[in-house]
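In this section we turn from sequence analysis to structure. A common task in structural bioinformatics is to predict how a protein folds when a small molecule is present, because the ligand can shape the pocket around it. The inputs are simple: the amino acid sequence and a SMILES string for the ligand, here pyridoxal-5'-phosphate. Study the lines below before reading on.
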Amino acid sequence: MHHFAYRGDDLCCEGVSLAEIAATVGTPSYVYSLATLKRHFQVFDAAFADRKHVVCYSMKANSNVAVLRAMVSWGAGVDIVSVGELSRALKVGADPKKIVFSGVGKREDEIEAALRAGILAFNVESHGELEAIERVAARVGVRAPVSLRVNPDVDAETHPYISTGLQKNKFGIPVTQAREEYRFARGLPHVDVVGIDCHIGSQLTKVSPFRDAIARVANLCRELVADGVDLRYLDIGGGLGIAYDDSRGSGTAPPGRTGVGGAEPSQGSASEGEPPGPADYARAIQEALEEFAGLDVTLVCEPGRVIVGNAGVLLTKVLYLKHGEIKNFVIVDAAFNDLIRPAFYDSFHAIRPVRRGETETLVADVVGPVCETGDFLARDRELRRPKEGDLLAVMSAGAYGFSMASNYNSRPRAAEVLVDGDRFAVVRRRETIEDLMRGESIPDWVG
Ligand SMILES: *Cc1c(COP(=O)(O)O)cnc(C)c1O
């Protein structure tokens, strides 16, 4: 469900036409729908209403301060992975008692900042990190709340780059070593063991891997409780997938997929199955949690993509059309520095015309100006035949879009816009050429 739809022939975000935003703000620009964000957060939160829980929005998916502030105002906590994210979370007034800190490579300065902020828990990923947390907590003079992130060795059946719960992945403590590490953690004077955590990957389109992971964690929990560990939080991570091939209202034939390779399961046709919605996900989790009967734990969830993915689009303008011998190219002003998902994960984003006019279609690669063959937003895609100057919307770009953008080819990063009903605001101005060179200098012994 999202609030991007045609009014007549104009693609709108809530009550604002994307053409109006492009005319005011320029392109490329990310456009987010506040109503969609709110609905997604609330549906997810409501799915767990009948048990003690905290929804810690995984802000690496989209860390714009306006998006984050909105989430926090609806009661969200935050899952962070760096001191930069901690700063953003604190700036928007997130409750530190709802912040969890994940990631395999926390530096000591980051651990210290999080300890001083008084976060809910560190999700600890290695023996060395436990030692570092003990050292820093002793120095600061506090006890650090920790959960151990266990790697349950289950296949998330997602793209290899976003699968994290297998033994061969760098994440978490192997489930077979976890009991030992808990014993070690409990012996540390400045560490307070509060829970257990697992996150198995991203863009999962089935509930079974979540269920398997929880079953494995439940077995471990029984052993830990027998060892006397006081588990108060059970963090099940994030990873719920979204549908990227939503072509409702596009008026085009089913999108061509030759060459997209189906790397992400959701790229398949609708008949291959949609990702589960939050209610199905919650039901599967609740069922799996019956194994924990008698254990009084607060559930922590870390959704990212499922909240913001379909709440954003990347607005871009067609610069040129090029008809090669074997391929057509639609060259647009957004590139893989703006949205890296197609190049990085071979992922599929629906592309819709901002003004629906032409009904004739064209099969083309939609590519950006960057000097790399990997710079494409879509390949062999059937589109309504665009003209130079037409606007296109790359759908479902709210998650891992702007947050993964770079300045490659010295391209200033896109503007970000938030829409609320009939109004909109620039929530991050387009970068300038000055921004690009900020911090750089030429020593006097050069040249
Ligand atoms: C990235 C990440 C998430 C969020 O994943 P989504 O697929 O966006 O829901 C949650 N927890 C951890 C530890 C992560 O690294």
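Residues 58, 60-61, 79, 102, 199, 202-203, 237-240, 302-306, 399 surround pyridoxal-5'-phosphate (CB under 6 Å). As an exercise, try to locate the residues that line the pyridoxal-5'-phosphate site and compare them with your own expectations.
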